[in-house]
Write the structure tokens for this entry.
Amino acid sequence: MNLKSHKLLARTRRHFFRECGVGVGRIALASLLAESVPAASRADASPLAPRKPHFDPKAKSVIYLFMAGAPSQLDLFDEKPKLNELDGQAPPPSLMKGKRFAFMERMSDAKLFGSPWKFKSYGESGTRVSDLLPNIGAVVDEIAVIKSLRTENFNHAPAKIFAHTGSVIAGRPSLGAWVTYGLGSEANDLPGFVVLQSGPRGPRNGPIIWGSGFLPSTYQATPFMPGPEPIFNLKSQPGVTHERQGRTLQAIRELNEMRLDETGDREIATRISSYEMAYRMQTGGTELMDLAGETDATLEMYGAKPGEASFANNCLLARRLVERGVRCVQLYHTEWDHHQNLIKGHRKSAGEIDRPAAALIRDLKQRGLLDETLVVWSGEFGRTPMAEGGMATIGRNHHIDAYTGWMAGGGVKGGQTVGATDELGFHIVEDEVHVHDLHATILHLMGLDHERLTFRFQGREFRLTDVAGRVVEKALA
């Protein structure tokens, strides 16, 4: 036996594992990464590539109309004749015992405040809707009104975070991020999750409530702005041709792919995808925002005006986005925070959203899209049956124990009311729907089981509904 053969025989298995040039540990790690990193996170596929739902979905897209500032359910959907009868009287002491309000010091001498508006029965369902929303009333047979929503926090900022992420702790993924994480997107030239804003200012917490939290950043929303440049920094610099930019992006992609192969870092896949998406959107994004191609009849139905920043334009854009395969669109409209001057303020805000929201439902239906598009409407909480402020500037305080929202479209049973409150609209007396339940129902209609849609972070599995949530079966068709 020669010396070389002797040395090979002397090697143990431990020596082999330690000194193997390839490295068994590396082989094992590569295998684990291949199993743990979804195919859509690798360089050969987009992180937003469409993925199969847990079960057959009722809806392919969701449009969430969020009324930032909290509308008064008592003046829009939850009619209370008894409250009108007791208008101006002191509430029973038991009503507010143990309750907390945003401005408790103002509630000590509060009086009950009946709605200044009349209600009317609409549609075959006979659902009662305020005079402030006649257009929504006209499509109420497509809507499931939920009068028994409940949330956790009575201040706007944390309540908005909770309404979108299921937690009052900033930094958790938003509803839209969870949806696109679970399903990807069918839009090739647009983001999977888009935000549109209208009103005098943006909602409190802005990016936090539509962010991706600890999910890969590819799932956070892309805000679209009105005007010829909907996305900041999308336009090429002067002198940079489309061909030259394409060559540059190809070189960047190759460098990123090399780094992705080395590290398996999902954020690199996100970076590759975002560069390429931006390149494609340089034409697609501008075309999307141009409403000039819509018919005069469509523009009139929405009350939209090309080039204007408005809720009406955004509702029409939302339809255009889901037509193109965008998975989630969230519209934010301010200002509904009327602690004072509720009559003037609610009349203005309701007037801005009534016609466009109803037009969105009509438009989706006539195009055959309503059956596969879920439309959701709500604020972050409701308003008290007691008045706030003097009679000259009367308003309503924050109320978390009962408020109203509605759903329409994909998988929703329209023309019905879910839940009920007491005769003053203060407590829920039938079919409570917590925010976690609303989220579970939205995910369910999109074909996602809220208990199975999870992401491991800091040593445990997280989900949108935390450790709660149930599907609201009564709302389903």
In short: DSSP finds 14 helices and 17 strands in the chain. The two ends are 82 Å apart (CA to CA).
